Structure formats: C-alpha cells, structure tokens
Predict the 3D structure of the following.
Amino acid sequence: MIEKELYQMKPMFGCARVIAFSACLVAAGALAQEKASPPAHDHMHMTQKDARSELDFPPPMRQHMLSQMRAHLEALQAILAALGAGNPGKAGDIAEKRLGLGALGAAACDPSRATGGDGMAAMMGAHMPPQMREMGMAMHSSASAFAAVAAKARETGDLKPALAALATVTENCAACHSAFKLR
Ligand code: HEC
C-alpha cells in the first residue's frame, strides 16, 4: 500500500527526494506496525513479573562484576570445548582455576577472604547482599565439585557424571541471574 502511494507521488518529487521520503514512510510504517502488534517476547515481558532484586552497586563495581561475568561465560565455553574434545582433565583444570573456590573472583563471594588482599573483591563483598554471596559461593563450589568429577572421568572414560556436575554449575549461574539484576 505504501509503495502504491509512493508510485503515485513520484511525478511530484525529484528522484532523491522520493528515496528519502520512502525511507521515512517505511520507518513510520515499521513503527506503526510495532505499536499495533508487539513481538511475542515483549508480550511475555509485560505479563511475566520481574521478581529480581535490583543491586545497588557503584558504577566501577558494576563494570568489574560484568567483566567477571563475561569471563565466567568464556570459562564455561572453554570447559565445554575441552569436554567436546574428549579431555575432561583439561576441563576440570579450567573449572578449578577460573570458576572454582580457588579462582580469584571467588574472593568477592567469600566473606572470610573478602576483607583482605584484593581491594575490588573486598568492595564487592561488602556490597553484595548475603543471599547473593551464598549463591556465588554455591556456584564456585559446584565448579570445584565438577573439577573433581572431571578428574575422575579421565580415568573412567565416562563423561556422563562430569556433564551432570557441569549442569549443576550452570544451574547455579541461572539461579543467581533469576534472583538479581543491576538495573
Ligand atoms: C551470585 C550471582 C551470580 C552468579 C553465580 C552468576 N552470575 Fe552472571 N550475572 C549476575 C548478575 C546480577 C548479572 C547482571 C544481570 C542484569 O543486570 O540483568 C550477571 C550478568 C552476567 C552476564 C552478562 C555480562 C555483561 O557484560 O552484560 C553474563 C555473560 C553472565 N552473567 C554469565 C554468568 C555465568 C556463565 C555464570 C556461571 C558460571 C554466572 N554468570 C554466574 C549474577 C551472577
């Protein structure tokens, strides 16, 4: 319909103006359409209540936390790649070093370690609600548990228990994500 109108207007406009005008019309049309029928996922957001608690973190801490999070995801990717390559020993090592209780970032979730050493970790520890710290610790300990199971898989050759243990790790990621948000 829009195209038909444009076609009829053509004689009144120079070519370049028609192109600019049509871009405008298309944009307006797209906007109108979006208003009339929101995509299904928007609809879901409107009806599903967001029950996550909002964290009150100062900007540098937000950035630090999000970069830690991206590192978590990269670690997870490296773990899956190692498992896929049939190398559970390597997967376990990555998990212990980058996600486990011994990982640098774990200090922020561990109240006993958050006070000394790493200043950012101490600050994170101080701002994190206790429930969030607990969820963080649950994730770090499940990663260490996965490392132990993965080490065993190297001997048995059975990857199933390691995969199940890794699912517990991602379950802990997801649990915290459904409980907290930055904004
Ligand atoms: C203790 C809580 C907690 C745990 C555990 C946790 N996250 Fe997060 N993560 C968060 C919060 C809070 C955000 C910000 C979400 C928001 O504001 O919408 C976040 C954001 C992220 C982001 C987005 C980063 C960005 O730059 O926007 C990624 C990716 C992520 N997490 C990956 C993971 C992975 C992978 C794991 C598990 C290995 C994990 N997280 C475990 C709390 C957690």
Q: What stands out?
A: The first strand starts at residue 53 and ends at 54. Residues 130-156 form the longest helix (27 residues).
